Hints:
Layout: E1 2-8, E2 11-16, E3 20-25, E4 39-45, E5 48-54, H1 55-60, E6 71-78, E7 84-99
Parallel strand pairs: 5-7
Antiparallel strand pairs: 1-2, 1-7, 3-6, 4-5, 6-7
Amino acid sequence: MLFLLFQLGHDRYALEARRAVEVIPFLALKQIPHAPRGVAGIFNYRGRPVPALDLCELTFGRPARERLSTRIIVVQFPDARGQAQYLGLIAEHATGMMRR
């Protein structure tokens, strides 16, 4: 099984690679007024607005650092009606893969 590796603080985490639609460079996000903590904004992904969650903000209360290794991991999940929706996960050091 193939995993995408990323880091939160000093700890490494893995996401099953088949769950990621695409890993894209960190880009400017459109801010959402009065968004809950951790919702970094929205971005255009292939013509669709996609919300982005900042995993560092949710975990540590600080935004992810804008580094070359900071990425947006686009994942897909079913909504309440069973239709596929996209979500961006902002993660630091999201540049490695591991096979286990």
